[in-house]
Structure formats: structure tokens, C-alpha cells
């Protein structure tokens, strides 16, 4: 006897109609926002040209001055606008000045950016709820590609207050909120994850970290508890190091910027717990090529040959430069090949004076 397969067509139609909070099918990311760093893009997404996906929750956590706001409210906001996204930016630190954002290339005009100053978790939750209700109502029945793209940024979660925090401050008794804030943050992230999944909406947040006291797990701890860390799709931990190397690769005594150490603690699109150091000079800002040399050395694409680094392309041609010779003009040789496997035109090699010593990374 041949068994007939069960017909799920009627059941599929009734599911979303009768049960609230359900959606059918897969929600693989279709749109990605460039972080401004090819190396970081690769560690998050497995692709040098992708970065942070829409339809997911991404968290950048780190100590003060580690470059979180520059990456999130600067690079990601700017590149989101360039890819056709409207940006909603919630500022809980009163630190995202108009002049600073414009200097990073962010368009602060009202048709491109909505800047909201927030202080309480409840206010953020209500704002998100109102937006998502209106968005879903306006785009009901539309295909993904027909829906407007939106990126929502919160900078930062760590500064948001709970109602208990407010009441205790007014009473002059700051004994803590007895764990209510972590629970509220977890609920905020969990609700957002489920609501944005089918739509071209990205949710990107920053948060604070503190030093770990656990000798068996020395990684910095993210404030606010682990619940909303588990609910986030991508988590990038950032640490601040001093940049004491000039544009020519020479060691100097003065601090010329930040060396942001970034470790991707959680991702479903690439290998987790990989890290890279990205230089952010005060004068020029972050180069998208920063960190690539170390990444390519680790992967074996760049191989030491004396005091120079060798790359052999797909045609068998050897490209060899001193470390500072691998820069914005030469690194695209490797990027282009790894992106699409295309055969590159031969280039003229650049001879440089040999360097006397290696740069010690701090």
C-alpha cells in the first residue's frame, strides 16, 4: 500500500492567520551594511564586502573610547544611508553631535536621519513598538524587496535607565534596581529579534563592558546580563589600545590615535572568536584596509620572505612588498581575487627601502 503524503497547504495558510507571532519560511539576510573595515566585514559575515545584515540584531560592546560609536553611529550609519536605508538613531549618552556625525559622512537631514534622545528602556521599547506597528501596517502583503530599508541604532544600551533607577535617584537612594534592568533589556532584544526578522530592518546597538574577574574566562564581560547577549545575532567585543605608529609605519612616543582590538564573539555567518586590530588615527580616521595584512598573514595568503611579504595570485604571479608597501593601492590585489576569483592584470612592483626593524604591536 502506498501512503499518500499529508497535504500541509491548508495548515500553512491557517498558521499565520490564526496564531499571532508566527511567520513561515527562512529569513536569510539579503542586505548587508559595510562596517567601514574589510577585515571586520569578513570576520562577521565571511565576506569582505558585506558586514552587518539587515533582519538581525547586532551588538558592539566595549570600554569607553574603544571606537564603538565611530563604527556604529559613524561608519554603519553612513554606509546604511549610502545603500538606501533610512536611519533611526537613539542617543542615550547625549554624545552624538551633529558636527561629529557630519564629519564622519553621516547625512543628518530629516529625510535621511531621525535622531531621538532617550534615557529610559521603556521609552525605547514604546518607540520601537510604535514604529514596528506602523511599518507592518503600511507594508502588509508586500514582498521583501518592496519594503523600505531601515536601520535602527541605539548608542548605547548601557546608559539606559529603568523606572527603578529614576525613582531611587529622586529619593536619593541609589541601591540598584534588583536586576530589573537586565530583564528589561533581554525582553527588548527578544521582541525586536522576532519582529524585524522578515523585513529589511537592521537593529544595531552599542553596550559597555567591564574587566572579567574570572581567571578561567578572561574575556571582558558585557554589562546588563547574558540574556540579551544570547538573543543578539552578532556580538562584537572591542578593546582600546594606544596607536603609537605613524602613517609610514614608524614607532613614535606620542599617541596618534586608537588601535581598536575587535573580537567577533558571536556570529552565524563565519567562524566565531576571531579577532583583528584596526587602527584609527586621529588625523585621518579609520582606513578600510587596516587589519587586512595581519588577517592575510594568519590565513597564509601573505607569506614572509625575508623582511618582505609575498602573495602569489591565481595566475602564479608573485607580488612582493615590504609591510608598509601593502596598502590601499596593493591590498585590493588580494581582496579582488578572494572576492570573485578573477584573473588580475599584471602590475608593476614597487621597490622600497628595507626597514631596519619590525614594528612591535602593542
Write a structural description.
With about 350 residues, the chain is of the alpha/beta class. It has two domains: about 25-290, Rossmann fold; about 300-340, no CATH class. It contains ten helices and 14 strands. Strands 3, 4, 5, 6, 7, 8, 9, 10 and 11 form a nine-stranded mixed β-sheet that branches. A hairpin with a 7-residue loop joins strand 10 and strand 11 (about 275-280). The termini are far apart.
Query: Which series of helices and strands comes N to C?
Result: HEHEEHEHEHEHHEEHEEEHEEEH
The shape, in one word, is globular
Rg over alpha carbons: 23 Å
What's the structural domain tally?
Answer: 2
CATH topology of the largest domain: Rossmann fold
Helix content: 25-40%
Biggest sheet overview? 9 strands, mixed
- CATH architectural category of the largest domain: 3-Layer(aba) Sandwich
* Percentage of residues in strands: 15-25%
The secondary structure category is alpha/beta
Instruction: Catalogue the unreliable spans.
Output: 341-362
- Provide mean pLDDT, rounded: 85
The helix tally amounts to 10
- The CATH class designation of the largest domain is Alpha Beta
The CATH homologous superfamily of the largest domain corresponds to: P-loop containing nucleotide triphosphate hydrolases
Number of strands: 14
Tell me the distance between the termini: 73 Å
List keywords for this structure.
Rossmann fold; 3-stranded antiparallel β-sheet; 9-stranded mixed β-sheet; 362 residues; 10 helices; 22% strand; alpha/beta; 2 domains; disordered C terminus
Amino acid at each position: 500500500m502506498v501512503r499518500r503524503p499529508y497535504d500541509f497547504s491548508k495548515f500553512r495558510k491557517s498558521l499565520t492567520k490564526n496564531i499571532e507571532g508566527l511567520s513561515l519560511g527562512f529569513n536569510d539576510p539579503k542586505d548587508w551594511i559595510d562596517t567601514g573595515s574589510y577585515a571586520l566585514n569578513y570576520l562577521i559575515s565571511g565576506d569582505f564586502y558585506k558586514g552587518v545584515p539587515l533582519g538581525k540584531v547586532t551588538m558592539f560592546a566595549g570600554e569607553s573610547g574603544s571606537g564603538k560609536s565611530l563604527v556604529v553611529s559613524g561608519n554603519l550609519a553612513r554606509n546604511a544611508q549610502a545603500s538606501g536605508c533610512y536611519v533611526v538613531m537613539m542617543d542615550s549618552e547625549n554624545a552624538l553631535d551633529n558636527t561629529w556625525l557630519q564629519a564622519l559622512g553621516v547625512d543628518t537631514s530629516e529625510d535621511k536621519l531621525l535622531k531621538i534622545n532617550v534615557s529610559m528602556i521603556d521609552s525605547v521599547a514604546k518607540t520601537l513598538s510604535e514604529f514596528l506597528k506602523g511599518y507592518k501596517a503600511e507594508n502588509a502583503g508586500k514582498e521583501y524587496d518592496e519594503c523600505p530599508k531601515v536601520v535602527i541604532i541605539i548608542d548605547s544600551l548601557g546608559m539606559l535607565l529603568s523606572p527603578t533607577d529614576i525613582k531611587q535617584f529622586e529619593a536619593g537612594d541609589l541601591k540598584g534596581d534588583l536586576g530589573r534592568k537586565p530583564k528589561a533589556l533581554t525582553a527588548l532584544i527578544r521582541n525586536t529579534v522576532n519582529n524585524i526578522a522578515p523585513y529589511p530592518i537592521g537593529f544595531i546597538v552599542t553596550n559597555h563592558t567591564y574587566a572579567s574577574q574570572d581567571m578561567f574566562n578572561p574575556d571582558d564581560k558585557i554589562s546588563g546580563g547574558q540574556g540579551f547577549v544570547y538573543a543578539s545575532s552578532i556580538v562584537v567585543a572591542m578593546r582600546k589600545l594606544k596607536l603609537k605608529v605613524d602613517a609610514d609605519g614608524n614607532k613614535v612616543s606620542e599617541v596618534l590615535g586608537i588601535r581598536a582590538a575587535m573580537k567577533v564573539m558571536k556570529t552565524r555567518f563565519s567562524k566565531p572568536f576571531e579577532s583583528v586590530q584596526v587602527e584609527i588615527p586621529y588625523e585621518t580616521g579609520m582606513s578600510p584596509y587596516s587589519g587586512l595584512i595581519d588577517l592575510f598573514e594568519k590565513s597564509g595568503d601573505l607569506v614572509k620572505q625575508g623582511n618582505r611579504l609575498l602573495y602569489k595570485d591565481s595566475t602564479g604571479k608573485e607580488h612582493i612588498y615590504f609591510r608598509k608597501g601593502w596598502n590601499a593601492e596593493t591590498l585590493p590585489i588580494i581582496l579582488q581575487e578572494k572576492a570573485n576569483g578573477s584573473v588580475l592584470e599584471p602590475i608593476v612592483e614597487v621597490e622600497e627601502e628595507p626597514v631596519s626593524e619590525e614594528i612591535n604591536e602593542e
